[in-house]
Amino acid sequence: MRLPSLLASLALSTLLTACVPVPANEVSKGFIDARGTDQGLPVMQAFLSGPPVGALRGNAEMAADFLDLEFRMESGRALPVLTRFDGPITIGLRGSVPPVALTELQRVMARMRAEAGLDVSIAKPGTEPSITIDFQPKSALRRAVPSAACFVVPNVSSFGEYMKVRNTPQTDWGRITHREKAAIFVPADTSPQEVRDCLHEELAQAMGPLNDLFRLPDSVFNDDNFHAVLTGFDMLMLRVHYAPELRSGMNEAEVAARLPAILARLNPGGQGRGGAPKALSPRSWISSVESSLAGQGNLRLTHADRLIGIAKAQGWVDGRLAFSYFARARAKTGSDIAGATADYMEAARIWRATPGAAIQVAHVDMQLAAFALSSGQSEQVLTLTDRAIPVARSHQNASLLSSLLAMRAEALESLGDAAAARSARLDSLGWARYAFGSDAQVRARMNDIAALASRGKRG
């Protein structure tokens, strides 16, 4: 299950509420930005290849990750046995399929074949797919599962069928011993990036591990949603899931006994590499994450303080402590910029020492760039975006990339480099169309960032 993405607008949206927004103009054939500049919307950008993010941690640590991903549900419930599809996996599309869906599906399947060794293809006409991707209105999906942006269910082939049998043993992952069919439900009325992100995570969970773990710095199997597309770690987990040494129906002890040899064969570079296995996150910390992100005002800060307290009590020095500081920084934004900055810096310090966490640091840089832009520190904006933009691009996060480029354009404009500013702004608009979807949403995002720059110019 993929949660609604909050990261692209975390502290930025909070900071924007502290300043008076510049009135947005309607978008038609051209884009009228917040300075009154007429810009034709460029062609929507799209990513073409996989991200250069390998499996960066030791095999012993990743073996523990694999067991916790395979034998636990996101609710914390234990799963009795490993389950997987037998034979080739076929995929079909139904519902109100967005234009971008087939292209993105073909791209992720190509990566799964090349990087995970999976036998996966589009289902032939007239045959029943192993996995059906059913595109439905976002409102319908939210009514069914309010907390999810998209989700996967076993033993059904359509949303209508799911609604008839949900909350019955037929859709209980814990009752199956092997996988025969599954359905993925994705909003039809959303941005191309959201469609792609849902396809990556939900296809991987339909085929492989079912759990998400907050402790993973390098994976889409993490409810923090920092990683938008499948990473090298994720592909390794899928490859292990379908290793010939394993089979459906094996219990955790049976899988654990075989894992060291499997990982040594599939990932020899991880042998002897440091990194101790990490404990599961307690439910109290996970609940505080959810409350901190969804809460308001002082309540949000209270839960963020609790996050840090639990993380320190657990003795964590990993990405969960960094995320706790990140959440508190978000809670402070708009009321305590100095405190938020200090917490963002502490989160970045921890993540910089964590293999696979470069995208998390880039998110921190975006938040700090927003602060710098709103206070007129244009040179600092250029420094922060200069190091974050390549990371956002390589990790295929268009919402982050477009925001960074828009901030960079505003900073260049304020420093008098109009040509470079225009180039960055057009690049930003192309990625924004992929990230945010409609012209109205693109316009709103660009005008929000322009409003930050206007605030900085006013001092």
Question: Could you characterize what this model shows?
Answer:
Strand 3, helix 3 (101-116) and strand 4 form a beta-alpha-beta unit. It is built from 17 helices and 7 strands. Helix 2 (59-70) crosses helix 8 (252-266) and helix 13 (358-374) runs parallel beside helix 15. 49% of the residues are buried. It has 459 residues and is of the alpha/beta class. Mean pLDDT is 89; it is low at 16-38.
Give descriptors for this structure.
five-stranded mixed beta sheet; 17 helices; alpha/beta; two-stranded antiparallel sheet; 459 residues
Layout of secondary structure:
Blueprint: H1 10-16, E1 30-32, E2 38-40, H2 59-70, E3 89-95, H3 101-116, E4 120-122, E5 131-136, H4 138-144, E6 151-154, H5 159-165, E7 182-187, H6 192-207, H7 232-241, H8 252-266, H9 283-294, H10 297-313, H11 319-332, H12 337-352, H13 358-374, H14 378-394, H15 398-414, H16 418-436, H17 439-458
Parallel strand pairs: 3-4, 3-5, 5-7
Antiparallel strand pairs: 1-2, 6-7
Helix pairs in contact: 1-13, 2-8, 3-6, 9-10, 10-11, 11-12, 12-13, 13-14, 13-15, 13-17, 14-15, 15-16, 15-17, 16-17
Please tell me the overall pLDDT.
89
How many H/I helices? 17
Compressed to H and E, one letter per element, the order equals HEEHEHEEHEHEHHHHHHHHHHHH
* Largest beta-sheet characterization: 5 strands, mixed
Count of strand segments? 7
Question: Which percent range describes the beta-strand content?
Answer: 5-15%
